Amino acid sequence: MNNRRRRIYEGKGKILYEGPEPGTLVQFFKDDTTAFNKKKHEIIDGKGVINNRISEFVFTHLNRIGIPTHFIRRLNMREQLIREVEMIPLEIVVRNVAAGELATRLGIEEGLVLPRSIIEFYYKSDALDDPMVSEEHITAFGWASPQELDDVMALAIRINDFLTGLFLGVGIQLVDFKIECGRLYEGDMMRIILADEISPDSCRLWDIETRERLDKDRFRKDLGGLIEAYQEVARRLGIINENEPIRGTGPVLVKTD
Ligand code: AIR
Ligand code: ASP
Q1: Contact, 180 vs 192, CB < 8 A?
Q2: 40 C-alpha vs ligand 2 centroid, how far in Å?
Q3: How confident is the model at residue 241 (pLDDT cuts 50, 70, 90)?
Q4: Per-residue confidence (pLDDT) for residue 247, from 0 to 100
Q5: Best residue among 54, 93, 163 to mutate for probing ligand 1, ranked by most atoms within 8 Å of CB
Q6: In the chain, ranges of CATH 3.30.200.20 domains
Q7: What is the pLDDT of residues 30-47, one digit of tens each?
Q8: pTM recorded for the entire structure
Q9: CATH of domain 2-85+226-236
Q10: Looking at domain 86-207, which CATH architecture does it have?
Q11: What is the pLDDT of residues 178-228, one digit of tens each?
Q12: Going by CA atoms, what residue is nearest to atom 4 of ligand 1?
């Protein structure tokens, strides 16, 4: 049944197919794992299945607290039904702790808690390696209007607050994360909503006690154990448990003293 669907877009980690009704799409999570703009690429069995579940969990909760997202419902192990949006060609990164690109670029020690959360924008372009851009570039080149950028930043801050608390409750520090947003048209109205995914592929998640990396840095830094780390995140959030990997319960409280 899936073979005849029209493929709308294929990215590094996901495929978008046309959806069952106008204005909807089906988002398929692949096992492809890439880093450094695909210079590093591996298929990691089952990664797509876990990310589908984790992203479903996060987007469902965001929808519930009134943060608009493209997520409608999960369809199966690897697919979710989403609203079609006009993507804004930016990666919006929110950082709470110095790591990755920020630590390298500015020579800041990894792990330093930032004096305030920092929002950065990267222009989505594989050909250019997603260069960092400022609000000036974004508005001058028309990738988003000043009003849209305000909306994007307000969304990013709310998402950061929610995710920080969600992960803290299960003994995980949200170091940074990346989101992508799109324009949803409803009649004459347009609003900015969260699209893409939120998963350990798009966040840095450190165990609060052990500082262990529970995210894609396991792949970027060749640490191994990526699936086990993603499963640990899903297990702590109460999405899966060891014996029965399907049922969603609630977050599992972890002692953090
Ligand atoms: N990210 C950025 N581009 C793609 C992704 N997934 C995420 C990283 C990290 C954050 O954005 O996973 O959580 C910042 O990444 P970096 O490389 O800019 O330090
Ligand atoms: N930009 C993504 C990352 O490193 C994926 C990629 O570059 O291939 O996380």
Answers
A1: no
A2: 9
A3: confident
A4: 41
A5: 93
A6: 2-85+226-236
A7: 999 999 999 999 999 999
A8: 0.94
A9: 3.30.200.20
A10: 2-Layer Sandwich (3.30)
A11: 999 999 999 999 999 999 999 999 999 999 999 999 999 999 999 999 999
A12: 202
